[in-house]
Design brief:
The complex is a heterodimer of chains A (140) and B (55). With 140 residues, chain A is mostly helical. Chain A has four helices and no strands. The longest helix of chain B is centred in the middle third of the chain and has 11 residues. Classes of the chains: A mainly alpha (140), B mainly alpha (55). At the A-B interface, α3 of A face α2 of B.
């Protein structure tokens, strides 16, 4: 079945997210503001590039009620994911501080947890995109 | 009438028309009425409801 414009856009988004985020989180050895900034710039550039190509080669770019419904479903899945991960993350943070594993004034620990929370945002975003892609294939 | 023509008349994408035909999507009431109007038939001739378990 031919893909709608919205579906193509989602596949491109997912590809961009996996191409940029996975290498950063699996291969980076040291937290750095420059690396985070570079990753964000990379995802923006890649998204603009891929979405531009898809838009240029797609004649019919309309979205209808089914697209909006699937988008809502995706946002719901993403929100539930980040809410759950945030609760888990905060609980772990509280536990570690109570146990004295991380000194409060340790900037290194703060950077690590910032990285973890950013990772949660990335997971939620990928969940949102993947949920929409699956919803297009399955019955609503 | 082709799927694209029906989609254009109703105001949805061709993929949505395909999803409706494959029973993968239940349209809104407004869209259902538009489909019936575009095909020139009554609503009941286009859409039927069967409780889950009997499909």
């Amino acid at each position: 079945m031919a893909l709608s414009y919205r579906e193509k856009s989602l596949y491109a988004s997912l590809a961009a997210e996996l191409l940029v985020y996975l290498p950063y989180f699996f291969f980076h050895h040291q937290n750095s503001v420059n690396k985070v900034a570079g990753m964000i710039a990379g995802i923006i550039v890649l998204q603009i590039l891929l979405q531009g190509i898809i838009a240029a080669f797609t004649r019919n770019r309309m979205t209808d009620e089914r697209d909006r419904l699937i988008e809502l479903r995706g946002y719901r899945a993403g929100y539930m994911t980040i809410a759950g991960l945030m609760i888990l993350g905060l609980a772990m943070l509280w536990f570690h501080f109570k146990a004295g594993h991380f000194p409060v004034n340790n900037g290194w620990a703060a950077l690590h947890f910032l990285s973890a929370f950013f990772g949660m945002l990335v997971i939620a975003d990928i969940t949102k995109t993947a949920t929409q892609i699956v919803s297009y294939r399955r019955a609503l | 009438m082709t799927q694209q023509q029906l989609a254009d008349q109703v105001g949805v994408t061709r993929q949505t028309v395909i999803a409706m035909e494959q029973d993968k999507y239940s349209p809104s009431l407004e869209t259902a009425f538009k489909v019936a109007l575009a095909l020139g038939v009554k609503l009941e001739q286009c859409f039927q409801y069967e409780p889950r378990g009997k499909r």
